[in-house]
Amino acid sequence: MTTARTIAVAGASGYAGGEILRLLLGHPGYRDGSLSLGALTAGGNAGTLLGQHHPHLVPLAHRELTDTSSERLAGHDVVFLALPHGKSAEIAAALPESTLVVDCGADFRLTDASAWDRWYGGEYAGHWPYGLPELPGARAALSTATRIAVPGCYPTASTLAMAPAVAAGIVSPEVSVVAVSGTSGAGKSARVDLIGSEVMGSVRPYGVAGAHRHTPEIAQNLGAIAGTEVTVSFTPVLAPMPRGILATCSAPTTATAEQARAVYEKFCADEPFLHLLPAGSLPQTGSVIGSNAVQLQVVVDADAGRLIAFAAIDNLTKGTAGGAVQSMNLALGLPETDGLDTVGVAP
Ligand SMILES: NC(=O)C1=CN([C@@H]2O[C@H](COP(=O)(O)OP(=O)(O)OC[C@H]3O[C@@H](n4cnc5c(N)ncnc54)[C@H](OP(=O)(O)O)[C@@H]3O)[C@@H](O)[C@H]2O)C=CC1
Ligand SMILES: CC(=O)N[C@@H](CCC(=O)OP(=O)(O)O)C(=O)O
């Protein structure tokens, strides 16, 4: 019998950490004992029980959260970091190279130090293999990785919506993205602009005109696929729902609707989590809640000369924890879909 691989989750009291734990509890490796859960850590909530923060994670309710330090996290085979931006670099540097570190924060996503400086600031920590297996070449990179940077939730939806069109060269490299997100994308910490009475019954844009830090990440992804610079105009929109992102992306095209559809069918054909809906159906967040699926559609507005691609994801599942577990599976040589469902919860 082989020894179980141990997994630690830093930031376990938060939304992303909680979702990682939810997925791991259903992972076949956890069920057969080949994966086990070690340290679960937090910041100010260290010393409290996980059940106080995630009462839905019944089997782990009794687990005590410990402080977050490289000493606590050392000795595990896999460490998920679900911490605020800027917290990962120091911890990761103190962990052995043999430990698989999967970072849900932004610290290692950007390949351009000047982009990091402009949108985040502080010392640039470098970049790691990017945890979006559906991108060209990503599976090969992830299968040998011991450090993985999980994408942001908006970049996951927007990149996957436009990747087929950009890879096939059927759009000009000028992409517009309007993406509507549920409030869990902002994390669990208290913010006046996120209290119920400010959010309920209202939809509002924020971080407009290139101000949102996901703009360079989306441009980086699409530029790498295109092999040329891609400009991205990104408008995030906050909606009164707990989970989900619907990204509506467009770019100039001369392709017909049939040509565009053929491109998307080919791109999605062997992808376990990419679901191109039948022509005439449009993605909605309600169909992907709790699932790792990405529901896609592509249409062409011939009068405007634009290709429009839609993607719906659960920001906490495919947009964070699902992408993290999918990447872990690849890095550990496990089946990529282990512990990840394409079946959502509805209504
Ligand atoms: N929410 C989402 O949809 C997505 C999130 N991510 C990324 O995942 C990471 C976590 O996000 P999310 O779960 O939403 O955030 P939350 O605010 O919900 O959780 C943050 C977690 O980090 C812990 N923490 C906060 N400050 C410190 C600190 N100084 N030292 C140690 N631990 C600390 C918190 O512990 P405590 O409870 O004790 O404060 C909590 O466990 C972020 O980097 C985020 O960008 C990525 C994609 C999507
Ligand atoms: C609704 C909402 O506030 N969403 C977050 C994005 C969350 C996410 O994916 O991003 P990171 O991992 O890069 O933090 C925001 O706009 O800041």
TrEMBL record:
Provide the catalytic activity annotation: N-acetyl-L-glutamate 5-semialdehyde + phosphate + NADP(+) = N-acetyl-L-glutamyl 5-phosphate + NADPH + H(+)
Q: In which pathway does it act?
A: Amino-acid biosynthesis; L-arginine biosynthesis; N(2)-acetyl-L-ornithine from L-glutamate: step 3/4
PROSITE patterns, per database record: ARGC
Under Enzyme Commission nomenclature, its number is 1.2.1.38
Key word Protein biosynthesis present: no
Q: Where in or outside the cell is it found?
A: Cytoplasm
**What's its top-level EC category?**
oxidoreductase
Output the SMART domains linked to this UniProt entry: Semialdhyde_dh
Output the SUPFAM superfamilies linked to this UniProt entry. Answer: Glyceraldehyde-3-phosphate dehydrogenase-like, C-terminal domain, NAD(P)-binding Rossmann-fold domains
Active-site residues per Swiss-Prot or TrEMBL entry: C153
Domain of life according to the entry: Bacteria
UniProt keywords (A-Z) are: Amino-acid biosynthesis, Arginine biosynthesis, Cytoplasm, NADP, Oxidoreductase
GO MF annotation: an example:
N-acetyl-gamma-glutamyl-phosphate reductase activity
Q: Which InterPro entries match?
A: AGPR (IPR050085), AGPR_AS (IPR023013), AGPR_dimerisation_dom (IPR058924), AGPR_type-1 (IPR000706), NAD(P)-bd_dom_sf (IPR036291), Semialdehyde_DH_NAD-bd (IPR000534)
Q: What is its main location?
A: cytoplasm
Q: Where is the Semialdehyde dehydrogenase NAD-binding domain?
A: 6-143
Q: Does the keyword Amino-acid biosynthesis apply?
A: yes
Check the record and name the CDD domains matching this protein: AGPR_1_actinobacAGPR_like, AGPR_1_C
Q: Which family does it belong to?
A: Belongs to the NAGSA dehydrogenase family. Type 1 subfamily.
Chain's role: Catalyzes the NADPH-dependent reduction of N-acetyl-5-glutamyl phosphate to yield N-acetyl-L-glutamate 5-semialdehyde.
What is the protein name stated in its UniProt record? Answer: N-acetyl-gamma-glutamyl-phosphate reductase
Tell me what organism the protein belongs to. Rhodococcoides kroppenstedtii
